Amino acid sequence: MLSLRPAIFLDRDGVINVDHGYPHKLEHFAFMPDAETAIKHAHDKNIPIFIVTNQGGIGLGYFDITAMRQFHDHMLAQIADAGGHITDIAYCPHHPKSADPVMRDCDCRKPKPGMILDLAQRHQIDVSKSIMIGDRPTDMEAASSAGCQGFLYQGGSLLTVMDSALQHIANVAKTIS
Ligand SMILES: [Zn+2]
Fold first, then answer.
1. Distance 56 CA to ligand 1 centre (A)
2. Mean pLDDT for the chain?
3. Is the whole-model pTM more than 0.85?
């Protein structure tokens, strides 16, 4: 029987990188405190990390998918330099105020759980043993709709929240086995 693994789902803006409003330019990229070390900690414990991010700036026409991908490549390179790894990234390009009607409605924009559920299915993840770390109530809502535990990050060292999350995952594993 295939056993499903726990994972950590991370919001991007305001959790991994500083959020100054629709960040997408490389020169504006900066890690939140200890974010790269926090990601390394999860990697060291063999817990896959996924990014789950609303990028409504695409739907609003502020930047395009190519710019977002360049931003991600830049971020992933710095995470790798610090010894960490991101397994996959899910993004929602939609926004309810998009000028393009087909970009307005979707099942992925948080607080909807679509991105978490999709990643979980594609990567054999057990959401019930997993954690979503985010800085907004919509992240916590998405977590609860997906059936995973939400951890609210309220600034300061991301390492503190990450280590609690990793401890929680270890405790759940102990209870089950
Ligand atoms: Zn969407």
1. 8
2. 96
3. yes
